[in-house]
Structure formats: structure tokens, C-alpha cells
């Protein structure tokens, strides 16, 4: 049908839902371009107008967690069929298709903060801003427990979004002057780096309720292993690399009943396949790890200057 609603309409609805107050709310009606959609807490939606299939899929993908109150940590990895996120030399531009890269920008637009490890900053010099779709830039967070980040990295100087440089607390001395919209904060660290739960707790105290852990593979793996991730988006390209850097790497298991079995939904994303993995609905070892790692977490709270936003 010529008048079916297109994905841009659905995306505008999702952005409105992102900013709504879902705590204790019933269904909320949102109107875009004169057409209304009713969204219930948890993401169920109804629209009397005809939607294109890809528009409906967009609502189905994002609304279950956008229209849910409370904190959320989502991670994403783009990889080949054989689970590689880069070649042995580090080449990764681009494993995934344009639509998959646009999906990543949608994730950034829907969260309060995007987290990357220092290895990703040094290797890719990412901007971590929203460019392919409408939406505001999230707070950018660099995990750098040993102070290895290159000082010339773009995100430390471009002023495009508030940026938090998390360092080991013994490596974060007071600095007389930092670039605009950059703050440097010290957190306790262990031999393996920051505890994922402590990072998320600190961000929550700074007002960042929804968090995207974007990369790299080692950082995402640590958050998943710690039970700190609620959802994982795996974008799989029809590509076989055969060697190189793996995506998700977890400790060895002996039996398959020890494997993680998240609730899984699949979506087409251009030529790639998106696996939406819901760890909140997982069972067994994962929930035991999640409960243990998030118990009795205490950390200093830090209020981001709202003038930076």
C-alpha cells in the first residue's frame, strides 16, 4: 500500500517513547505526523493505520526495552558467521552492512551512555555519536583502568558529547584544565580492570540509566561474564573470515547445560541477521552469576554537570 507508514515514522515514535515516564504508567498514546500509536509498558503496541513490515519490525525490536522503567544495560557486537569481529591485523571496516551500522546508531540514540574499552579507542578512534539517524548523542565513557588511552583521541577533544574518562583511582589526579565536556574520574580496579557492576552503578549514580556497551569484544565479554548485561544484540554478516579476533569469549565449560541460553529473537538487518538476546529471561548459570556479581556493589556517585548535556 502506498500509504503504509515507513520506518522513519516508527523511529519518531520510538524516540518519543524513549523520553516517556513508564514507571507506574498505563498505555501511552504518541502521535507522529497525525497518526497515533498506543504503547503499553513492556512494549506492546497498537496502531490503526497500516504499517510497512519493516516499520512494524522496528517497533517490535526496540519498544520492549524502551518502554520499560528501570535500569538497562545492552551490548552489541558486529561479527562474521564464524564469530570474528576483525582480521588478525585488526581490519574491521566493514564486516557488517550499512543497515547494521545504522542499527548501532539507533542504539546510541536510545541510551544515556555508551561504553567502550580503551583498546577500541586506541585502535578505532571512534566518535561514538549519533549520525545515521535522528537522535541525541549519549554520554561517552572510556574504560581505561591503567591509563593507556591516547590523549589525541577525537572523543577527548571534539566536544560533540559529554565524555567520561574512567581511570584506576590511583591514576586520576586532579587536572587543572581539561577539554570542554570532558571529565576524568577514578574508580577502584582489579587485576582484570573495572568490575562491570561497579561501572554501571557509577553511571546510574550519574544519571545514566540506559547504557550501551559497544565494544570491543573483550569489554563486552567481561560484562556478559559478570552477568551485567540485560540484552545483547549480535549482528551477524554472511561472511567467513576464518581467523582473526573473536567476538564473545567466555570461560570454558564442560557440559552444554552450563551454556548461556538467552531468550532469542531474530530480525533482518539489510543483508545481515540481528539476534536480539534477552539475558533477563535466561536461566541457570547466567542468572547465578548475575545475582552474585551485582550483590553488595558500592561505589561513589558522581553527578554529571547537566550543563554538559
Q: Can you put this structure into words, describing what you see?
A:
The chain has 309 residues and is α/β, with parallel strands linked by helices. It has 2 domains: 7-66, no CATH class; 72-308, 3-Layer(aba) Sandwich (Dihydrofolate Reductase, subunit A). 24% of the residues lie in helices and 25% in strands. It is built from 7 helices and 14 strands. The protein has helices spanning 7-18, 53-66, 98-110, 118-124, 196-205, 217-225, 285-293, and strands spanning 28-32, 35-39, 45-46, 72-80, 84-86, 113-117, 139-144, 163-168, 182-187, 210-215, 231-237, 245-246, 263-269, 272-278. The strands form 3 sheets. A 9-stranded mixed beta sheet has the order 9-8-7-6-10-4-11-14-13, sandwiched between helices. Helix 1 packs parallel to helix 2. It is globular and about 55 Å long. The model is unreliable at 282-309 (pLDDT under 50).
Short description:
This protein has helices at 7-18, 53-66, 98-110, 118-124, 196-205, 217-225, 285-293, and strands spanning 28-32, 35-39, 45-46, 72-80, 84-86, 113-117, 139-144, 163-168, 182-187, 210-215, 231-237, 245-246, 263-269, 272-278. With 309 residues, it is of the alpha/beta class.
What are the main properties of this structure?
Dihydrofolate Reductase, subunit A; 309 residues; globular; 9-stranded mixed sheet; alpha/beta; disordered C terminus; 3-stranded antiparallel sheet
SSE map:
Blueprint: H1 7-18, E1 28-32, E2 35-39, E3 45-46, H2 53-66, E4 72-80, E5 84-86, H3 98-110, E6 113-117, H4 118-124, E7 139-144, E8 163-168, E9 182-187, H5 196-205, E10 210-215, H6 217-225, E11 231-237, E12 245-246, E13 263-269, E14 272-278, H7 285-293
Parallel strand pairs: 4-10, 4-11, 6-7, 6-10, 7-8, 8-9
Antiparallel strand pairs: 1-2, 2-3, 5-12, 11-14, 13-14
Helix pairs in contact: 1-2
Amino acid at each position: 500500500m502506498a500509504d503504509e507508514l515507513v520506518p522513519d515514522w516508527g523511529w519518531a515514535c520510538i524516540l518519543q517513547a524513549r523520553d516517556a515516564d513508564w514507571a507506574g504508567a498505563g498505555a501511552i498514546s504518541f502521535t507522529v505526523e497525525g497518526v497515533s500509536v498506543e504503547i503499553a509498558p513492556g512494549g506492546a503496541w497498537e496502531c490503526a493505520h497500516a504499517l510497512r513490515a519493516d516499520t512494524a519490525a522496528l517497533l517490535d525490536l526496540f519498544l520492549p526495552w524502551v518502554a520499560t522503567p528501570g535500569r538497562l544495560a545492552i551490548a552489541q557486537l558486529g561479527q562474521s558467521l564464524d564469530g570474528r569481529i576483525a582480521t588478525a591485523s585488526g581490519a574491521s571496516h566493514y564486516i557488517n552492512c550499512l543497515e547494521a551500522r545504522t542499527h548501532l546508531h539507533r542504539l546510541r540514540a536510545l541510551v544515556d551512555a555508551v561504553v567502550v574499552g580503551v583498546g577500541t579507542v586506541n585502535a578505532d578512534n571512534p566518535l561514538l555519536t549519533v549520525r545515521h539517524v535522528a537522535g541525541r548523542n549519549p554520554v561517552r565513557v572510556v574504560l581505561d583502568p591503567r591509563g593507556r588511552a591516547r590523549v589525541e583521541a577525537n572523543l577527548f577533544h571534539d566536544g560533540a558529547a559529554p565524555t567520561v574518562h574512567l581511570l584506576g583511582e590511583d591514576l586520576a589526579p586532579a587536572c587543572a584544565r581539561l577539554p570542554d565536556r570532558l571529565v576524568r574520574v577514578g574508580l577502584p580496579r582489579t587485576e582484570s580492570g573495572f568490575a562491570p557492576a561497579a561501572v554501571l552503578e557509577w553511571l546510574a549514580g550519574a544519571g545514566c540509566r540506559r547504557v550501551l556497551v559497544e565494544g570491543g569484544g573483550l569489554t563486552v565479554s567481561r560484562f556478559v561474564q559478570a552477568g551485567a548485561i540485560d540484552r545483547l544484540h549480535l549482528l551477524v554478516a554472511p561472511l567467513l573470515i576464518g581467523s582473526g579476533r573473536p567476538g564473545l569469549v567466555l570461560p570454558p565449560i564442560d557440559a552444554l547445560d552450563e551454556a548461556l541460553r538467552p531468550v532469542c529473537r531474530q530480525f533482518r538487518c539489510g543483508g545481515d541477521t540481528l539476534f536480539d538476546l534477552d539475558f533477563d529471561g535466561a536461566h541457570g548459570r547466567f542468572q547465578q552469576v548475575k545475582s552474585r556479581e551485582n550483590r553488595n556493589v558500592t561505589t561513589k556517585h558522581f553527578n554529571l554537570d547537566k550543563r554538559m548535556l
